[in-house]
Design brief:
heterodimer, A: mainly alpha, MetI-like fold, 0% strand, B: 241 residues, six-stranded mixed β-sheet, four-stranded antiparallel β-sheet, globular, binds adenosine-5'-diphosphate, binds magnesium ion
């Protein structure tokens, strides 16, 4: 395959849009009050955009995602580094973390609400939990994949343990860490909606619940499309960073 | 006065298979030693023991009368494979080897080394963009950048064409002239061993010890076609077959 214009990624959404438009607006195969037409959703979206409501929800949700993601990722970076580097720490901490990982996300919600109230802290905590595990797991396996031969070069040049970590082990684990960060950010959005669906008065998740209560599927779709676009945008930014940071890798990049 | 590097009664085995049994060798300060022997006889293993990367099972390796228990800057090793850091370009890979004392004049030293190994134009390339021979030259430059007291080179020129190989042999001699490291060099190339070293050490079959030591008492710079070298060459070949 030659180099394709990245815009080909828009072909599928375009087909989807046309199908949606055809089914709802032309063929009338679905009841409009349950499944609004693209035009209706566009107008609603425009309205919400113009009166600033959409923007308000986006800012709140984005703030929560970034805060939760940052907290979860930083803790994962610290813990993952320790667990990856030191077997005793792994024996100590890993079983407990693996058990926590297997708790379904929603199981945390009642507990966090009870413990932290219904404000920002429980939401950000939930998002941080969601972001933590992919970053942690990927970083640990990345550190463990570090080529022993390169570590030996560090020994030969007399690197102190700390220098060994940041000059050899962490760069070698970087591809894994970045993959973990991308998955973690996706998880953060997932957990955001879980948090906002249950207890909030602002944010895209709240928009969904509120629209359900007032039977406004058009607003729901605006929220869903916004989530999709924001999620994609965030991932795209990380992907750009990844491409730049990993330009040294010599891996199969697909045909 | 005792030798700079002493390998005394060293034994080593890997999971039941014994590689060395009671190996002894004393190397004087500033001496260049070539290690030759059949593939798999333990040449790389011996360098790892001297570098302190692997533990000995019996005996001792001493540098300046102090036993080697862990790797350190005093002993430098150029591995048999280039082992470049894939995330660093050529220049930064070479700079990685600099001893703390040379860090202040980093740019000059690295530029000088790149010049010597003929990689000035490739300074910005990443390891994935290098040929085998280029990678080996980077690894050599990185090892030289450390200016260790004991310099261990494991088949440093194996991936190079004959012409480059001769040039880099002379580079190693020049470095040796400049700061007189004690050198242990593994090679498969008998001419190379005789051209470079003061003594050629032949390792025997497993469990290996020193089978033979051939002294090359010729002043440097040597003529590669010296009749005495050719004579020693015959002697060495007989020893190896
Ligand atoms: N880490 C190891 N574990 C087990 N066996 C090893 C290891 N390293 C080397 N050996 C064995 O030790 C022997 C000597 O290896 P090596 O020193 O690499 O030989 P040479 O460099 O002379 O070709 C070989 O038989 C090899 O299989
Ligand atoms: Mg070898």
């Amino acid at each position: 395959m030659g180099r394709l214009n990245p815009l080909v990624g828009l072909i599928l959404p375009a087909i989807f849009l046309v199908l949606w438009w055809y089914i709802t607006d032309i063929a009338h195969l679905l009841p409009v009050n349950q499944f609004p037409t693209p035009g209706r959703v566009w107008n609603t979206g425009l309205q919400l955009f113009n009166n600033g409501e959409l923007f308000r929800h986006i800012t709140v949700s984005l703030g929560r995602v970034l805060a939760g993601f940052a907290i979860g990722a930083v803790i994962a970076l610290l813990l993952g580094t320790l667990v990856g580097l030191f077997r005793p720490v792994e024996r100590l901490a890993d079983p407990f973390l693996q058990a926590l990982r297997n708790v379904p996300s929603l199981a945390w919600v009642p507990f966090l609400l009870l413990w932290m109230g219904i404000d920002e802290p429980p939401k950000i905590t939930l998002i941080a939990i969601g972001a933590f595990f992919p970053v942690y797991l990927n970083l640990v396996s990345g550190i463990r994949q570090t080529d022993r031969k390169l570590v030996e070069v560090g020994y030969i040049f007399g690197l102190k343990p700390f220098a060994l970590i940041y000059r050899i082990v962490l760069p070698a684990a970087l591809p894994y860490l970045l993959a973990g960060l991308r998955i973690g950010l996706g998880q953060a959005w997932l957990f955001l909606v879980a948090a906002e669906l249950i207890a909030s008065t602002r944010g895209l998740g709240f928009m969904l619940i509120d629209a359900e209560n007032s039977s406004r599927p058009d607003i729901m779709l605006v929220a869903i499309i916004t989530l999709a676009v924001l999620g994609k945008l965030c991932d795209w930014l990380l992907q750009l960073a990844e491409r730049w940071l990993l330009r040294w890798t010599d891996t199969f990049k697909g045909r | 006065m005792s030798s700079l590097l002493t390998i005394e009664g060293v034994s080593k085995s890997f999971s039941g298979s014994q590689i060395f049994n009671d190996l002894n060798l004393a190397v004087e300060a500033g001496e260049i030693i070539s290690l030759v022997g059949k593939s798999g006889c333990g040449k790389s293993t011996l360098l790892r023991l001297v570098a302190g990367l692997d533990p000995v099972h019996a005996g001792q390796v001493r540098v300046n009368d102090l036993p080697i228990t862990a790797p350190g800057r005093q002993v430098g090793l150029m591995f048999q494979e280039p082992r470049l850091f894939p995330w660093l370009n050529v220049r930064d890979n070479v700079a990685f080897g600099l001893s703390p004392a040379r860090k202040s004049s980093k740019d000059n030293v690295v530029a000088g080394l790149l010049e010597e190994v003929d990689l000035t134009d490739s300074a910005k390339l990443l390891p994935r963009q290098l040929s085998g021979g280029m990678a080996q030259r980077v690894a050599l430059a990185r090892a030289l950048a450390g200016e260790p007291e004991v310099l261990l080179l494991d088949e440093p020129f194996s991936a190079l064409d004959a012409f480059t190989r001769m040039r880099l042999q002379d580079l190693v001699l020049k470095v040796w002239h400049d700061y007189r490291p004690t050198m242990l060099l593994v090679t498969h190339d008998i001419e190379e061993a005789l051209y470079l070293s003061d003594r050629v050490v032949v390792l025997g079959e497993k469990p290996a010890g020193v089978q033979e030591i051939i002294e090359v008492k010729l002043p440097r710079p040597r003529n590669r076609n010296d009749v005495q070298l050719l004579e020693l060459r015959g002697q060495l070949l007989a020893e190896l077959s």
